[in-house]
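In keeping with the milestone schedule agreed at the kick-off meeting, the structural modelling team has produced records for the first pair of proteins. Each record is given below as a sequence line and a structure-token line. The laboratory manager (R.T.) confirmed that both were archived under the project's standard naming scheme.
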Amino acid sequence: MYIISLNIYFNHMNTKREANHQQRSILGVVAGITAFLIWGLSPIYWKELYKVSASEIILHRIVWSFFLLMPVIIFRRRFAEFISAITSLKSVLILTATSVIVSTNWLTYIWAVQNDFILQASLGYYINPLINVLLGMIFLGERFRRLQIVSLVIATGSVLYLTFYYGEFPWISLLLGFSFGLYGLIRKIVDVGSLVGLGIETFILSIPAGIYLIFLHQIGESAFLKVGLRTDLFLLGAAFVTAIPLILFTFSARRLNLSTVGFIQYIGPTVMFLLGILVYNEAFNSAQIITFIGIWIALAVYSIDSIIHFKNISDPIK
């Protein structure tokens, strides 16, 4: 009778743990999808600021993001981590470098959206996982697996086709892909969480950004408080567009395995791709069609390789 009771108890506990794990996974998927949907739909937001230059938008995005992130960091009891990182010379130097890289990424992206290059921007985020593989080989000494080589060859051929056949070098796509890849690579060096790291990056950038915003206002070239209340609110809201998807993504990444996150991440560039064609009617010629098809094939090969690799390392028998 005692043994039977123990079995019932342990079965109940296992069932409860499985239910909790399933609930965490569901919440992780919902948070991840929401994060990438926000990132994918963000061109709609930045298009609303067509009266403001991309450079001024970035300055406001940096400053207001810092003021939004700090209360979040304090609320989530990460302020001690913030102080520890900001007082470390190594961490500050690394995060200064990443802050420059991420601001370059932001500026390029918003400029691309404002100038009707949403398709190129989406291509940049499509090829980002493949660029990560390439950077890992170059800087971290990681070995290519066969299917990874195939995917990189297909992706490279697609970009070269667009460049040489049509004469259109996709510099926006490559700059976005490589800047985001380098950002992730360098951030691996410093042991700081994504939320605290972004808080420090925006803190570092907010000092020169704030000074330059004041200068623009004094010489009468600032859109803030001059164009209209709607524009002012959208500039202030840039902080939420920056912080909310990051917080959701961090929440998601902690509850899902990498392969699941890898699939979810394609939602962002796919939504951007559809916006560019269906909403903003960007030109989509035959060379671009072939390029995107090539990139999608490369990503399919890459995803298959990731699934196989994940199953191999998670299978205890192998």
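The second protein of the pair:
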Amino acid sequence: MPDFAYTARDASGKKVTGTIGAGNQRDAAVQLAGRSLFPIDVKPADKHSAAPDRIRSRSVKPQTMAIFYGQMASLLRSGVSMMRALTVLSEQASDKNLKLVLTDIRARVEEGEPLGSAMARYPRVFSEMGVNMVRAGTEGGFLEDALDRVGTFTELQEDLKGKTVSALAYPVFLFGVGSLVITVLIVFFVPKFDPLFARLRDKGEMPALTDGLLTFSKLLQGYGIFILLAIVLVGVLLRFKLQTEEGKFAADRYKLKIPVLGGILMSLAVARFCRVLGTLLGNGVPILRSLEISRAATGNRLLSRSIGEASENIRAGESLATPLRSSGYFPQTVVEMISVAEESNSLEDVLPTIADSLEKRTFRKLDLFVRLLEPVMLLIMATLVLIVVMALLIPVIKSSSAI
């Protein structure tokens, strides 16, 4: 949405200047009239009147944003005015990007722009859910509660992400170190045995396992750099492919097909959807708008598409549970709880409970999966090392027997 610089007069005749976001000059004039301002001049704003692109392109850590939402809610609940609260938070912000963003938002709010609209100018700082909840809170008179819920939700999501990453950190580290050790063995250690086995090779008595290992070692020595470059090239091409909508859909589809882990990822996506939808509904956001926002929070396009189809059914007067059940992605227990909640008109209370229950069960599965993954990784690495050792020992044993 472009910015327009305006000069107007308020009800007392005082001249007011500033910038406003609108689709065109006429929309900008209508917005000014809605603020009881009589527009004198409205024109496209120059680049210097808008927030610098370098600020808009930067993000702020979710943990920092969770603290900001909580502090903002506390200040407003204590009777501090909106302008004073934004001033205090911008002055004490430890993150430089957040400080610049809050300074610009304060200036825009001072000019009469709604807080939600000013926040929407920074999509990499304020999530769509946060912006819409602030808008709903501003219109409904529960801004403090809306900010509190956004802060709590942001913190819960970061805890969820942190637990998942920490659970998978050790198996990934184990796989990386084991792969490096085996590669070093094959590239630098195995070739030293090649001259020792020349006699067996000449007689045609070289074991197939040993011959294959030596051939693979020579391949890595001679063409290792080209193989590495090919892997990097495939990785780059795959990355570009994943940036397309088709590639993203394919990636989300393959994720769900991973044994055990696919079910865990789907459960976490459903839990995110339930938590976001319940939070939005609890703050007075209409259900169709809530579904539109929460479908983007799932992190899986297949699930998001199913939720989009559910939105169309709701527009036609059907319940939410029916299309969710037919999608096949939602557990039967979750669908039944949503169905009962719809009948009792308590959807905003039941959905966070469903999210809590799903996350607890999923984390138990994830913990079990990681506990089993660690010994499996050790077993795989030990098997590969054993194959290398056996490939080198069999010729030695055959030579000793012949002597």
